[in-house]
Specification:
alpha/beta, disordered N terminus, Aspartate Aminotransferase, domain 2, binds ligand 7TS, 13 helices, single chain, globular
Length: about 425
């Protein structure tokens, strides 16, 4: 039985033991790690899997006849299978391994939209997107003369759905929205968006970076066309990510980059591209990282996505209520349907100053614009403090955050 399987019936709170980085003092305080939306910690299972791979199995993939190359290929392709089944992809060939959400979205912008867009066409996004789901579209719009259209949000940080519907037109060539917002935690009404788009034959890309670590994702049930996410936010190594896309789209798209791996035959008269998924994986990939991502998926599956979602939802409710009860705290992002992210401001303390004082008390949060400058502009603030949850957080972490915020207010008063 694998290490991951033995955990199946342990309570979620026991997961904390599996993450070595959580068990340290930071500035003489126990670490309360609440910066998971930026990057999550890795469980022992991932760290050990990567170390074992490096110690025993490393070689380049898909090209050697020797034993280590076979082992590396098996581990790498095995991870692709795990990823595919984790998101219920109909085929492993639709699982493109990338360096992260950013690369996944750029791939779609350049390879799917680039050849199709012309002047007058539109790409529809929302006002709450991460820069990774804004700038790639701006680039391809500049290249093609297409227009980027932005659907508004309201004061709770929710998509204004009626306005969104009104912005969908016969010029819309793609809809690209976050499944969950990184700055606000809002869960977007993706089922409605996809149903609307399907009626009009408009492809939909979901930026799932902030969703996949927190709730079960089934790309077939969603019915989207592309789904992008990052390994390091779901307890895997940095520099890993995934683009899932419908095979018909991926087959029709030209390669994104040229090089080794993505070819079947090269001559100076022309090149025959490799089949999916390799057509989009030029060069030596992040083999150890992807192997680690496979282990992260084992870990998530053994823990159970439904349990993770339930646990984080309870913690988020507690965090929102208790933070909101502190005098001088303004919560930013109060949507009815949210995942474990809370942005906030405390009096007129600059978020960076607040973050520094919290760090002195062992509390790790992110401060700033969270790569979502349009969200900050909408709320009229330069940035926020943001606490973001993962499966290993508990009430003690939140209580430590609350105490640290109260202390920060005392220091600044
Ligand atoms: N999309 C969303 C919704 C994100 O939250 C992020 C990263 C990205 C895309 C880009 O992911 P990457 O792995 O390719 O960099 N979000 C954050 C954050 O909220 N704080 O630091 C990174």
């Amino acid at each position: 039985m694998s290490q991951a399987q033995t955990r199946e019936f342990t309570p979620l709170s026991a997961c904390r033991r599996d993450f070595p980085a959580l068990h340290q003092l930071v500035n003489d305080h126990p670490l309360a790690y609440l910066d998971n939306a930026a990057s999550a910690q890795q469980p022992e299972l991932v760290i050990e899997t990567v170390a074992r791979y490096q110690q025993h199995d490393h070689a380049n993939v898909h090209r050697g006849v020797h034993t280590l190359s076979h082992r590396a290929t098996e581990a790498y392709e095995g991870a692709r299978d795990k990823i595919g089944s984790f998101i219920n992809a109909p085929s492993r060939d639709e699982v493109i391994l990338t360096s992260g959400t950013t690369e996944s979205i750029n791939l779609v912008a350049q390879s799917f939209c680039g050849p199709r867009l012309k002047e007058g066409d539109e790409i529809l996004i929302s006002h709450m997107e991460h820069h990774s789901n804004i700038v790639p579209w701006q680039l391809v719009c500049e290249q093609t003369g297409a227009t980027l259209v932005v659907a508004p949000i309201n004061q709770d940080g929710e998509l204004v759905y009626e306005a969104f519907v009104d912005l969908v037109s016969d010029k819309t060539r793609l809809i690209a929205v976050a499944h969950v917002s990184n700055a606000l935690g809002t869960i977007n009404p993706v089922a409605d968006i996809i149903a609307l788009a399907r009626d009009r034959n408009i492809p939909v890309l979901l930026d799932g970076a902030q969703c996949v670590p927190h709730m079960a994702v089934d790309v077939q049930a969603l019915g989207c066309d592309f789904y992008a996410f990052s390994g390091h936010k779901m307890f895997g190594p940095t520099g890993t990510g995934v683009l899932w896309g419908k095979q018909a789209h991926l087959d029709a798209m030209p390669p994104y980059q040229g090089g080794g791996e993505m070819i079947l035959e090269v001559s100076f008269d022309g090149t025959i591209y490799n089949d999916l998924p390799y057509k989009f994986e030029a060069g030596t990939p992040n083999i150890s990282g992807i192997v680690g991502l496979g282990a992260a998926i084992d870990y998530l599956q053994a823990t159970g996505m439904a349990r993770i979602e339930e646990h984080e939802s309870r913690l988020l409710g507690y965090m929102m209520q208790k933070l909101g009860d502190i005098d001088g705290v303004r919560l930013i992002g109060t949507a009815a349907n949210k995942a474990g992210v809370q942005s906030f401001l405390v009096d007129d303390i600059h978020p960076h100053d607040l973050g520094t004082i919290l760090d002195h008390q062992g509390v790790a949060i992110r401060t700033g614009h969270h790569c979502a400058m349009p969200v900050m502009e909408f709320f009229g603030v330069p940035g926020t403090a943001r606490a973001s949850l993962a499966l290993y957080n508990n009430q003690d972490d939140i209580d430590q955050l609350l105490e640290a915020v109260v202390k920060a207010r005392q220091i600044f008063s």
